[in-house]
Amino acid sequence: MKDQFLAYIKNLQDTITSKLEEVDGKAQFKEDVWTRPEGGGGRTRVIENGAIFEKGGVNISAVHGILPESMQEYFKVSDCDFFACGLSLVLHPKNPFIPTIHANWRYFEMYDNDGKIISSWFGGGQDLTPYYLFKEDAIHFHQTCKNACDKHHIDFYPEYKKRCDSYFWNTHRNEARGIGGLFFDYLKETDNLSLKDRCDFVMEIGDSFLESYVPIVEKRKNLAYTKEQKDWQEIRRGRYVEFNLIHDKGTLFGLKTNGRIESILMSLPPKVQWRYSYSPKAKSEEEKLIKALQKPKEWL
Amino acid sequence: MKDQFLAYIKNLQDTITSKLEEVDGKAQFKEDVWTRPEGGGGRTRVIENGAIFEKGGVNISAVHGILPESMQEYFKVSDCDFFACGLSLVLHPKNPFIPTIHANWRYFEMYDNDGKIISSWFGGGQDLTPYYLFKEDAIHFHQTCKNACDKHHIDFYPEYKKRCDSYFWNTHRNEARGIGGLFFDYLKETDNLSLKDRCDFVMEIGDSFLESYVPIVEKRKNLAYTKEQKDWQEIRRGRYVEFNLIHDKGTLFGLKTNGRIESILMSLPPKVQWRYSYSPKAKSEEEKLIKALQKPKEWL
After folding, report:
1. Domain containing residue A152
2. What does residue A181 show for φ and ψ, rounded to 5 degrees?
3. Which of A14, A197, A262, B89 has the highest count of CB atoms within 10 angstroms of its CB?
């Protein structure tokens, strides 16, 4: 299973980065291959100062060894070996009318002393963070997520959509980071679903990524914007930073387990603003966004 | 004691904000008075888009009530009442040759069921975060801190300087946030020092603040800077954000205890950049700063 999924994400990284380079038309991804002293490593690909993408990364990693102590506590297990691999991506577009996107799909294995798998599962998801709200873009994104889910189980979309809304919640601001998408974790083998079924599902979701996002980029990339709209994007990016550094388990986990800092923090936006007690004008497009983020919404 | 210290910080807020307005010459502090539903409140004063200060805040608060649960765990006590008051300030200057400064001085009381004080202490400190390193500025800042400390005990400066270096350490970057200053906490009554002695010491430190910082501002405010130097300041401000949101106990504490978000996060810089794997040119002034932050240094 691990070989199959690792081969899948390697291939998916290639597919996604070549398509995004084609969409951008100007910048190319730069690749950093790194190794983890305790075992494994990764292939980080970052794009900066593109025509479309101001900053972004599409990274894969596959790490293994003794489960770090902080992770032992988290999973409530004792000393054991583990393997984890996944693809993580974040794209921060230049144009404030194009939303930021984040996705992550991963596979995890834990072993007993004889090297036998004691537990294995898939996790991940994707979510959209717009700066201006286009209802049709939100619907397109959620519909693509739902279509991919529905091929596997009719309950998946409502369940993972709900979990996504609850995970990407900026508690200290009492608002959502964005308009959600999918979030799933601990997808293990069950009576009805084999690990292969789980894997097929996650690959289906991964394969749907470009279709969920690229049409939105194409639709919005030529819209003209003002300095004020760009400022608004940078202020909202501040909330993205707050979520990632204060709440995001993946980020904090990486920082605490001696992960590769630059690969983890590539998720942070290129330019960000914090203004004191800023709030948009009443009935503006900016206020419309804020209101939509105050309560999870059924887009479909 | 609480009345005396509260009166002191109220007065100190006035002294500091009027002097800083005079130094800035353009912008003025805007005041927000707020109340905490569970008891107490504060007076937040924020300056933005000044000639000198791009963003900054000088805030006081005095809160009381039942000790929040997260704080009970932190202090390892059970259900009890508390009182806490303090002054917090952060100033982010426009000119990258002027350092950012942070300071906080606070007093804390905990009570038994009869309202008797069971524990009380002072805490706080101040630290400097330059973007370019002027050795004479670092010496001036530390010397002013030391002079104030020495009036009370010859051991205070070396001890609190060391604690400051260890507290403001960005573990995930393996570098200091800045060039340090003072950090002290749990300054309680002892055999040799009364609570009044502790209070006198903290007030001495608070009184030395303007002298420790304003001469540096005056010395650097007219230095011309390039866009590249401004970019460098904004990149370094990213590390400031990382420290405050990932490591700073005061910030995380405020966010978890339902503090006033905008007063807590006024510490975040106005404009910030994150570039992937950025490192300055060899032997540049920027690299000189990085090297100085890799290991705490004795400035005096």
Report:
1. 2-269+283-292
2. 160, -115
3. B89
